[in-house]
Amino acid sequence: MKKIKVEKERVRLLNDRPVLEKGKYVLYWMQQSQRVNYNHALEYAALKANELELPLLVVFGLMDNYPEANLRHYHFMLEGLKDTADQLSNRNISFILKKGFPPDIAKEFAADAAIVFCDMGYLRHQRIWRKQVSDGVSCRVVQVESDAVVPVEIASSKAEYAARTIRRKIWLHANLFIVPLDKVKLNHSSLDLKFKNTLSLNDIEALLGSLKLDTSVGKVDSFFKGGPTEAKKRLEYFIAKKLDLYVENRNHPYKDDISYMSMYLHFGQISPVEILLEIQKHQKENVDSYVEELLIRRELSINFVYYTSDYDCFSFLPEWAKNTLEKHKADERPHRYSLKQLEMSKTHDPYWNAAMDEMKYTGFMHNYMRMYWGKKILEWSDTPDKAYKNLVYLNNKYFLDGRDPVSYANIGWIFGLHDRPWGERPIYGTVRTMVASGLERKTNPKAYIEKVNILKEKALKKED
C-alpha cells in the first residue's frame, strides 16, 4: 500500500486523553481548512480511521454571528462548503453541517468519537475554540496544521521583524513541506450514518435566509464564486494566461495579471502547498516573484498574528512607528474624512474613491491600491489610532479576504509594521508615505478608474 505522507511537524496533540475503544467513528472537526485536496488534517484523520477500522465523519459548526462576518462572507463560504461536501461524498465521507457555536458542535459529535482531529487556525478566537474543544471532550484531540506551508512554530519561535528576517528560516524548511499529498482510500463509509437537526447545502439561498446575518453588505457572486473547484480553475487560468506577465504587471491595478487566490486561501478552499507545486512547474522569474508573496510574505503574516496577541490593535506597532506617529499626531491635516465619508467614497481623491468602490462592489482590491488606500486613511484621519480602527473596520466589513492574518499584517504595514523608518514628513513622521503623483508616475490610475467604473456598473445591474 502506498504510504501517505503527513509531516510529523504538522501534528500536535492538544490533550492527553485516550483513543476511545467505544467510539463509533473518527471525527474531523473542519473549520479552517475547508477543502478536500491537500488537506493534511483530513488525510491524517483518514489514516487513523483505517487503522481503527472506523468510518470518518467530517463536521462543520455554522454560527450566525461569526466574528465580523456578514452575508458577503457567508455566501462565499457556503458555496465552498457545498463543493467540499460533494467531494467528500465521492470519497464515502459524510459531511455534517450543523448550526451552533463551533466548539459546542465539535464537542457534541466528539461524544461518540474514538478520536477527534482538527485543523489549525491562527487568530485569537480560532485558538481559543480549539482549546475549548480539547479541554471539553473525553477522547484525544489532535491538531494538524494545513494552511501554512512551513508550520508556524517550525519556521520561527518568535514574531519576526520583517521579510528579510524570516526568509532564510522559511527556506531552511520549505522544501521538506512542498511535497505532494496523496489521498487515503477509506475502508469504511460514513455515508449511512444519520444525525438529527443537520443543515442542507442543497439550497444555499434558503440556508442564508434561515440565518441571522448582517445583510448590509451584499454578495459578490457576479465577480467571485466560492469553492475549491473554482479556486483550482482560477489557478489554472492564472498559470496558463497570466503568470508570464506577473512580474511586469503585478503593480498595475488597471490590469488583471494576478491570481486572485487570497480569498480562497482565506477560507482554506485551496492549499498553499498545492499552489506552490503547480506554480513551480513553470519558468523561473515570475515564479520566484509569486513565491515570495505566497510563501514568504504570507507566512510572515501568519507569524505576526500567531506571536502577537493584540494583532488587531494599534498597540502592537513597533516602538519607532508609534513614537514618530505620536510626534506628528498634532500636524495639520489638509483633508479630514469621517468613517461615513470614507465608506461612501466621498473624498477629493478620485484614485482613492475608485479603490474604495472596487472593495465595496467586488469584495476585492488590487494589492497596489490597497497600500495607497490605507496610507491615505492614515493621512486623512484625526489621529493615527482612529485611522487604524477605521482601516480594520472597512477591511473586515468589505473584503472577502479580510479578518485574516495577511490583511491584519497589511494594515499594520500601513503604520510601519515589517518596514523601516524613511525620511521624515508631516503626519507620517518616518513611516513610509504614498502619494497620488507616485501612482501617476508608476502606473495608470486613470485606467484603473475606468476599470472600476465598469465593475461598479456590473454590480449595480446585478442588484437591479
Automatic annotation (TrEMBL):
Residues 24-152 form the Photolyase/cryptochrome alpha/beta domain. It catalyses: cyclobutadipyrimidine (in DNA) = 2 pyrimidine residues (in DNA). Belongs to the DNA photolyase class-2 family. One of its GO terms (biological process) is photoreactive repair. Keywords: DNA damage, DNA repair, DNA-binding, FAD, Flavoprotein, Lyase. This is Deoxyribodipyrimidine photo-lyase. InterPro entries: Crypto/Photolyase_FAD-like_sf (IPR036134), Crypto/Photolyase_N_sf (IPR036155), DNA_photolyase_N (IPR006050), Photolyase_Class-2 (IPR052219), Rossmann-like_a/b/a_fold (IPR014729). The keyword Flavoprotein applies. Its cofactor is FAD; (6R)-5,10-methylene-5,6,7,8-tetrahydrofolate. It comes from Sporocytophaga myxococcoides. Its EC number is 4.1.99.3. It holds the Pfam family DNA_photolyase. GO terms for molecular function: deoxyribodipyrimidine photo-lyase activity; DNA binding. It comes from the Bacteria.
